[in-house]
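input
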Amino acid sequence: MVIARRRPAARAPQRAPRLDKKEYERQLYELQLGLVALHRDVIAHGRKVLVVMEGRDTAGKDGVIKRIVEHLSPREVRVVAPGKPSDREQTQWYFQRFTASLPAAQEVVLFNRSWYNRAGVEWVMGFCTREEYLAFMQAVPHYEKMLVRSGIALIKYYLDITHNEQKQRLRARRRDPLKQWKISPVDAAAQKHWRDYSRARDAMLQATHHTDVPWVVVHADDKQQARLNLIRDLLLRVPSALKKKPLQRPDPRVLREFDGSLLRSGWIAP
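output
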């Protein structure tokens, strides 16, 4: 397996304009109505939906998950945020600790980070061996294909931000007493290991993007645009009877399905 190499600098891509608060709230309300209708359809037809949220530290995973689940039924929606594995979990098959949280019929499960910890923080910070990392990269497409064949609608999002934006958000997090719980030693290393995380991200996207479960990349420097466009994309990707109605497509300046050209063009932050 080839580890992604450092990419040359590219011209900054065009981004979507910022929205004023009133327009953002109007669009979010309409999309949340769509999510409620979609969830009713998931329950009525016994569907199983799994959404994986990955991305840079401070990229806004918590915020977008909060807006997705805000008005959905708490009985059929779960948010899973994997923590540090226990001594017992470290002896298990790697995917075993995540499999127990997979959705049953009528359920929507959102992973706030997932098995891809192994391709990101574990690999960059030296929490796994090279052999464990390579084994994961080879196994994960097969694991995900098994989930899809079992009837799970699996959607993977990667929220990407620029180096400067992460720096500003980390600074704001340290100053905000209501966000102290988000601060961790791993977050503190995010800027120091920026290039290492970039290389790990590039390798992960290239090795684990496949037609059954593609990666969808969201440029998240603008949190509001990231939330709106991710929800638009989610409404399009989850199987439902809603597809009979025209749904607005996400803005390609904010959200795109992964392909290698996004790395070469600079659309994904180097």
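quick obs: Strands lie at 48-55, 77-80, 107-112, 152-160, 215-219, 255-257.
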